[in-house]
Amino acid sequence: MIRGFMKNSEFFSKIIENHLNLSIKEIKLSIKEILKCMILSLIKGKRIEIRGFGSFSLHYKKPRIGCNPKTGNKIKLKGKYIPYFKPGKILRTIVID
Fold first, then answer.
1. What residues make up the domain containing 31?
2. Which of residues 8 and 92 earns the better pLDDT score?
3. What is the dihedral of CA 71, 84, 61, 67, to 10 degrees?
4. What's the whole-model pTM score?
């Protein structure tokens, strides 16, 4: 089982190891721009598919009755869209094996 997470600085360092001709500034700017485009696409309701890696979309959660964990009181929760990631076949295969 994999534990922990990769911080931004570690992520950028891994990319720099493989691409010595790029500066940290260029790499950070590129990644931020990619993420910005992905977020804007999701806001517009578009699905994002990166072949072999996976797809990003929004799933709608219906309004429901929830429970306040502190008080135990029932509360009405509004319907909302949540980001959803579905891993692609290649990613699933690599991670599982």
1. 1-45
2. 92
3. -10
4. 0.73
